[in-house]
Amino acid sequence: MGEFPDAEVIRKVLAGQKNLFELLLRKYNQRLYRIGMSIVHDSMEVEDIMQTVYIKAYENLSTLINPAFFGTWVTKIFIHESLLQLKRKQRMTGITENNITNTTINTMRTPIHIVMNKELGKALEDALLQLPEKYRIVFVLREMEGMNVAETVETLGITEANVKVRLNRSKAFLRDQLSSYYKNNQVFHFHLTRCDRIVNNVFNQLGLRGKCGM
């Protein structure tokens, strides 16, 4: 899927090959899921947000000035929607981010340095969720999803200096015990079945047929 440039896929979608939109969903599903889990912390809510954002993106593809930046564009929209959902949850429950952080800390009973194998991913997820939101999002974008500084600046609407400062602070928080694990594929793991479910739900709502080919 990654062998086809986003701009080429979008051009074909806008020209009538609408089923090719699936290529973009499958390309960015894991990125959005990981970012969403770092913000909202609920897999089903994240899936709902992803579906909503993909539908908005499809309906507004023709307004995208530079199709080559689809990934940055859809990520920016997704982060905005995820933060709105987080704020709605906080208003409904009265839980602030500090409360969430304290709860996470209190539930970590096992020292991270003795957590092994399958528990490593969960340990890192818990550690990441202790980070303040503004540091956590930068960390996920830069270190887990491999976005460069310019893409992160554009996505978050902050300065290059802020990106670097936030990334350094997040690394400092995690470095001692987790530095060798933060790119582990088990962190906010995105299963193929979840990918298929999101694609199918989006395509059903758009009235499209999946399983595309170029």
Written account of the structure:
- It is a single chain.
- The chain is mainly α and 214 residues long.
- Helices cover 68% and strands 0% of the residues.
- It contains ten helices and no strands.
- The protein has helices spanning 6-14, 21-39, 43-59, 70-93, 97-107, 119-130, 133-144, 149-156, 160-178, 192-206.
- Helix 2 packs across helix 3 and helix 4 (70-93) packs across helix 8 (149-156).
- The longest helix is centred in the middle third of the chain and has 24 residues, at 70-93.
- It is globular and about 50 Å long.
Concise synopsis of the structure shown:
This protein is an all-alpha fold. Helix content is 68%, strand content 0%. It contains ten helices and no strands.
Q: What share of residues are in beta strands?
A: under 5%
Total number of β-strand segments? 0
Order of helices and strands: HHHHHHHHHH
Instruction: Sum up the overall morphology in one term.
Output: globular
Average pLDDT over all residues: 81
Q: Low-confidence spans: pLDDT under 50, at least 5 residues?
A: 95-117
Please, how many helices? 10
Kindly provide the radius of gyration, computed on alpha-carbon positions and rounded to a whole number of angstroms.
18 Å
Largest sheet: none
Percent helix, as a range, is 55-70%
- Structural class comes to mainly alpha
> What is the straight-line distance between the termini?
10 Å
